[in-house]
Amino acid sequence: MTPVHFSFTSAFVLGLMGLAFNRTHLLSALLCLEGMMLSLFIALALWALQLETTAFSTAPMLLLAFSACEASAGLALLVATARTHGSDRLQNLNLLQC
């Protein structure tokens, strides 16, 4: 395993562990998701550069576009949750309540 591969794998795993274990605020969960997507984007871009083919050159841009859509949807949910519940704490959210 190369040091570059190890660093991107560890960045993704740290984001996943932060998402799994630190679930107090919605903003921290969104930041962990963004960290995971950033490590995936950089790893995919470097992989496309190493293969030197044009078939994989659009994959990082497609991932970046989906990451931007995910971030905007997450921020919209964060604003809606803060307006209705008063905070972004995940313990206050209940899906069974209308």
Automatic annotation (TrEMBL):
<comment type="similarity">
    <text>Belongs to the complex I subunit 4L family.</text>
</comment>
<dbReference type="InterPro" id="IPR039428">
    <property type="entry name" value="NUOK/Mnh_C1-like"/>
</dbReference>
<dbReference type="Pfam" id="PF00420">
    <property type="entry name" value="Oxidored_q2"/>
</dbReference>
<keyword id="KW-0999">Mitochondrion inner membrane</keyword>
<dbReference type="GO" id="GO:0098803">
    <property type="term" value="C:respiratory chain complex"/>
</dbReference>
<keyword id="KW-0520">NAD</keyword>
<keyword id="KW-0812">Transmembrane</keyword>
<feature type="transmembrane region" description="Helical">
    <location>
        <begin position="29"/>
        <end position="49"/>
    </location>
</feature>
<keyword id="KW-1133">Transmembrane helix</keyword>
<comment type="function">
    <text>Core subunit of the mitochondrial membrane respiratory chain NADH dehydrogenase (Complex I) which catalyzes electron transfer from NADH through the respiratory chain, using ubiquinone as an electron acceptor. Part of the enzyme membrane arm which is embedded in the lipid bilayer and involved in proton translocation.</text>
</comment>
<feature type="transmembrane region" description="Helical">
    <location>
        <begin position="6"/>
        <end position="22"/>
    </location>
</feature>
<dbReference type="GO" id="GO:0005743">
    <property type="term" value="C:mitochondrial inner membrane"/>
</dbReference>
<keyword id="KW-0496">Mitochondrion</keyword>
<dbReference type="GO" id="GO:0030964">
    <property type="term" value="C:NADH dehydrogenase complex"/>
</dbReference>
<keyword id="KW-0830">Ubiquinone</keyword>
<dbReference type="InterPro" id="IPR001133">
    <property type="entry name" value="NADH_UbQ_OxRdtase_chain4L/K"/>
</dbReference>
<feature type="transmembrane region" description="Helical">
    <location>
        <begin position="61"/>
        <end position="80"/>
    </location>
</feature>
<keyword id="KW-0813">Transport</keyword>
<dbReference type="GO" id="GO:0008137">
    <property type="term" value="F:NADH dehydrogenase (ubiquinone) activity"/>
</dbReference>
<keyword id="KW-1278">Translocase</keyword>
<keyword id="KW-0249">Electron transport</keyword>
<dbReference type="GO" id="GO:0016651">
    <property type="term" value="F:oxidoreductase activity, acting on NAD(P)H"/>
</dbReference>
<dbReference type="GO" id="GO:0042773">
    <property type="term" value="P:ATP synthesis coupled electron transport"/>
</dbReference>
<keyword id="KW-0679">Respiratory chain</keyword>
<protein>
    <recommendedName>
        <fullName>NADH-ubiquinone oxidoreductase chain 4L</fullName>
        <ecNumber>7.1.1.2</ecNumber>
    </recommendedName>
</protein>
<keyword id="KW-0472">Membrane</keyword>
<dbReference type="GO" id="GO:1902495">
    <property type="term" value="C:transmembrane transporter complex"/>
</dbReference>
